[in-house]
Design brief:
By secondary structure, the chain is mostly helical. The protein has a domain of about 55 residues. Helix content is about 75%, strand content about 0%. The chain contains 3 helices and no strands. Helix 1 runs antiparallel to helix 2. The radius of gyration is 18 Å and the shape is elongated.
């Protein structure tokens, strides 16, 4: 395996574990927060967790062509 693949696997794994832990903290902040500020922080953590999860999926699965800057360029079609 190449070092880039190992790094990518470790990065995605850390992002997914961080998302799971962050979601638990967000739920705890929202449910047991003493003030509205704590609940707002919980919502922010939950939003960040969702964004990190989507980025982890984007890294691991690759960006679909329709979401890229130039969808008409498909480098895998140019290979023989």
């Amino acid at each position: 395996m190449r070092f880039r693949t190992i790094g990518k696997v470790l990065l995605v794994l850390a992002m997914l574990i961080g998302t799971i832990v962050g979601m638990w903290y967000a739920v705890a902040f929202i449910m047991f927060g003493a003030s509205w500020w704590d609940r707002l922080i919980g919502l922010g953590i939950m939003g960040a967790g969702i964004v990190v999860f989507v980025v982890a999926l984007d890294i691991s699965l690759g960006r679909p062509p329709q979401f890229s800057a130039r969808p008409w360029e498909r480098p895998w079609e140019d290979r023989p």
